[in-house]
Specification:
2 copies of one chain form a homodimer. Helix content of chain A is 58%, strand content 12%. Chain A has 112 residues and is α+β, with helices and mostly antiparallel strands. Chain A has a single domain, classed as Orthogonal Bundle (Arc Repressor Mutant, subunit A), CATH 1.10.10.10. The first copy, chain A, has a 3-stranded antiparallel β-sheet with strand order 1-3-2. In chain A, a hairpin with a 7-residue loop joins β2 and β3. In chain A, α3 crosses α4. The longest helix of chain A is centred in the last third of the chain and has 29 residues. The two termini of chain A are 36 Å apart. Chains A and B meet through α1, α2 and α5 of A and α1, α2 and α5 of B. Chain A binds a DNA duplex (30 and 30 nucleotides) through α1, α3 and α4.
Chain lengths: 112, 112
DNA sequence: ACCATGTACCTTGTAAAGCAAGGTATGTGT
DNA sequence: ACACATACCTTGCTTTACAAGGTACATGGT
């Protein structure tokens, strides 16, 4: 139900996961799913976008137990992008929290 | 450019602003604009949604210097919704920050 | 009288993103 | 032969933010 909140953050999350080491889409779903909900239908189009932006590059690796895996590596530009996104993310969180602070003093003790 | 990040948070922000006191759409744009970017084209449809969900109710007030203002008040359900949204927001921020933490140890010192 | 400006409301169409549902193919175990 | 896990992918839907445009009232300047 918090689908909307994720908009715009998943790119950053995937880049962050890739900063910890190369991975492939199917595995990334598993990795991120430990912390947050994300589905394959989200991941595959997302990876295409990241590649279109040249934030990641790919290489194929045969698997001993299944079809080949399409690994993704962060590019230098991807690393820069991650850094930028994290900055924007922190700014945004601060902005929202500041607005939430508006409500802090109000309505809590409504006894006349 | 961080349009996507806002998805899902603006409802909450508006409800929070209304928790600090009744207001009308045009004024809310001004209030929130002190902290974050938001446009009228976003606000008016948003207010309709809030009302459709019964999180706010409205009343008209004539203005001395312009057309009548459509004031919005938080309903009891709106207050509950705000509380719920804030909880989800905090959870979500924690989740994202946890994922960003994955990258913390990697790639920072890439010597050898 | 006329017009610009500020206030205040609103709608339409576009773009982006997440997701459920479905589909394909490979390898392993029964 | 069949089921299952792995691993890839696409289509169509939904929600949301926003730019652009439109209406109407009140005030001040010329």
């Amino acid at each position: 139900m918090k689908t909307q909140l994720k908009k715009g953050t998943l790119d950053m999350c995937v880049l962050a996961a890739l900063a910890a080491g190369d991975s492939y889409a199917y595995e990334l779903v598993g990795i991120l799913s430990r912390t947050m909900e994300i589905s394959e239908g989200t991941m595959y189009p997302l990876m295409r976008r990241l590649q279109a932006e040249a934030w990641v590059s790919t290489y194929l690796v045969e698997s001993a137990s299944g079809p080949s895996r399409k690994y993704y590596t962060l590019t230098a530009e991807g690393r820069r992008q991650l850094s930028w996104m994290q900055q924007e993310w922190r700014e945004f969180v601060n902005e929202v929290n500041a607005v939430l602070g508006l409500a802090a003093g109000a309505g809590t003790g409504e006894a006349s």
